[in-house]
Amino acid sequence: MKNLPMPNTQQIAWMRDIRRHLHRHPELAFAEFATARFIAKQLGELDIPCREQVGRTGIVASLGSRKKGAACVALRADMDALPITEQTGLPFASETPGVMHACGHDGHVAMLLGAAALLKAKEAELPGRVVLIFQPAEEGDGGAQGMIADGALDGVNAIFAGHIDRNYGLNEIVVQPGLISAFTDEFTIEIRSQGGHAAKPHETADSILAAGQLITSIQGIVAREVHPCLPAVITIGKIHGGDAANVIAAQVVLEGTVRTTSPETRAVCIASLQRMTRAMEQLHRVKTSFFLREGYPPVVNDPIAARIATEVAAGIVGQDMVKGQPLPSLGGEDFSFFLQKIPGCLVRFGARHTKLHDAPAHSPRFDFDEKALSTGALFLAQTAVSTLERMKELRGPAPNRA
Ligand code: NI
Questions:
Q1: Which residues are within 5 Å of ligand 1 (an ion), measured at CB?
Q2: Ligand 1: distance of its center to the CA of 246 in Å?
Q3: What is the tens place of the pLDDT at every residue in 269-281?
Q4: Distance between CA 143 and CA 333 in Å, rounded?
């Protein structure tokens, strides 16, 4: 079928209004009730049937061929906000104190609805089925897993998504085959002693001294134990211990995250963290506990899906606006759970604002250039169509994907 057209003026205004409505009414992970209702209403107005409460607060819609065995491509948008108090001063700033769309997921929903409108206009011509996945809880709770468990990927052959990114210029599209994000495990370490009088250290063990030494020792893991050519980060982001200047603290709690890109490096870091924590018992006469919370696996883009995405992107924004991402980000993204099931590709949509409005993602002043919405919508819709047309390549023999 012919390439889809850019969204028209009406559709662009409609997407902007959707983004601003969601921005004004952000909701945290698994509490996206009003967001889901709003999305279902928009889909209803487009005459696209949808299933609600998938993976708790998610939505799955589909359009195109209903034939059994028809090729099927999914497009995914995440829809949760962050526990941040907005300070942008925008006329459509969050009306919910302490909650803000500071990662652009409001834009992702607007883009996917925009893609839905473009696809709906050509529904009769679609060379297969397109599934739209509106996913809750990307920001740490792994909402993708619940969507998969509730059948969001049933019959789906490939999946695509995009993330708004102010590190790239407006309308740049970043496509990179292979690994682009990290394992995101988190840990909690408890160090305990009896506590005691600050002037009588010989009567007890000192949890704060042990914590101080442990923090310093942990920095040796990446520097001395991990293969120097493989990326790894261990950050301790939280420390709590002690109550008074004249008391030896009975307990210190440390919390941190381990970011790695290979299972081997991940195993080294976790084992070393455990070993060093235990070693404090010998060294400082304290008791310790180590808890690991497994995070997301890395996003690994399928090479053939990435090739299709690259070609579609070049067709929309021009070859010189299509960028690679040669170094992986050590951030996390739960789109990886979908990619563990079927091939696909996550791209980044450049959306840097003017200097005046530029602020990092996950910060209280984050905003993006809304002109990226129409590019994103067209990219998603056209990628779905092109992938349906080229499904044979994706289903090709394994060596093709080496
Ligand atoms: Ni995000």
A1: 103
A2: 44
A3: 999 999 999 999 9
A4: 11
Mean pLDDT confidence for 206-231 = 97
Phi, psi (degrees; rounded to nearest 5) at 267? -65, -40
pLDDT value of residue 402: 45
Question: Alpha helices of 225-322 — where are they, by DSSP H?
Answer: 263-284, 303-317
352 three-class SS: coil
**How, if at all, do strands 50-54 and 58-64 pair?**
antiparallel
- Residue bearing tokens 């070049």: 314
**Rounded (10°) CA dihedral 268, 274, 279, 285:** 170
Q: Which domains does the chain have, with CATH numbers?
A: 9-180+299-393 (3.40.630.10), 183-293 (3.30.70.360)
Instruction: State both tokens at 179.
Output: 């690994």
Cα distance between residue 262 and residue 152, in whole Å = 28
In degrees, to the nearest 5, what angle opens at C-alpha 261 toward C-alphas 260 and 266?
Answer: 50
Q: Give residue 100 CA to ligand 1 midpoint distance, Å.
A: 12
The candidate with the shortest Cα–Cα distance to 33, out of 56, 9, 4, 1, is 56
CA of 312 to the centre of ligand 1 (A): 23
- Rg of the chain (C-alpha set): 24
pTM here? 0.93
The rounded Å distance from CA 163 to ligand 1 centre is 7
The confidence score (pLDDT) of residue 69 equals: 87
Residue 247 has pLDDT above 60, yes or no: yes
- Is there a contact between 59 and 107 (Cβ–Cβ < 8 Å)? no
Q: Which residues of 120-149 are buried (b: 16+ CB within 10 A; e: fewer)?
A: bebeeebbbbbbbbbbbbbbbbbbbbbbbe
* pLDDT of the residue at 353: 85
The predicted model gives 336-341 an average pLDDT of 98
Q: Where does 14-146 show beta strands of DSSP type E?
A: 50-54, 58-64, 72-78, 129-135
Q: What is the dihedral of CA 98, 100, 102, 108, to 10 degrees?
A: 160
Give buried/exposed letters for 150-177 (b at 16+ CB in 10 A, else e).
bebbeebbbbbbbbbbbebebbbbbbbb
* pLDDT score for 152: 98
Instruction: Take residue 304 and report the two structure tokens written for it.
Output: 């053939």
From CA 73, how far away is CA 161, in angstroms rounded? 11
